[in-house]
Amino acid sequence: MRTKHAPIRTCLGCGRKLGKGELVRIGVKNAMPVLDESGRLHGRGAYICPRSECINLLLRKKGRLSHALRISLPREAEEGFLKGLLREKKGED
Ligand SMILES: [Zn+2]
Fold first, then answer.
1. Which range marks the domain in which residue 22 is found?
2. CA 15 / ligand 1 centre spacing (Å)
3. What is the rounded CA–CA span in Å between residue 7 and residue 13?
4. pTM here?
5. How many domains is the chain built from?
6. d(C-alpha 70, C-alpha 43), whole Å
């Protein structure tokens, strides 16, 4: 049996490189970003730390998420998605 090497991914918010397991994956479904909690969505994915700090950082980087996911996303949709994530995070605190 081969030991699995944990892939390193970069957080879109703070830019830190972390193991895949420490970040949450954002996938694409119907040309919209979705939180890919199972990590099973096909296609392009972006990663971010599950912290409101990083989500806020990404919110300020306009167009960064849609660029990473290679989708053309209206600014409002990008903001809406990230603000939704923030609300979820707040619920957990
Ligand atoms: Zn981060």
1. 8-92
2. 6
3. 18
4. 0.86
5. 1
6. 10
> Contact, 68 vs 46, CB < 8 A?
yes
Looking up tokens 């660029």, which residue turns up?
67
Distance 64 CA to ligand 1 centre (A): 14
48 Cβ neighbours under 8 A, 6+ residues apart: 11, 12, 13, 23, 24, 26, 54, 55, 58
- 1 in any annotated domain: no
Question: Tokens for 10?
Answer: 């970069």
Per-residue pLDDT tens over the stretch 3-50 = 667 789 999 999 999 998 899 999 999 999 999 988 888 889 999 999
Domain membership of residue 60 (yes or no) is yes
Backbone angles phi, psi at 8, to 5 degrees: -100, 135
**What is the 68 CA–ligand 1 centroid distance (Å)?**
15
State in Å: Cα 54 to ligand 1 middle: 5
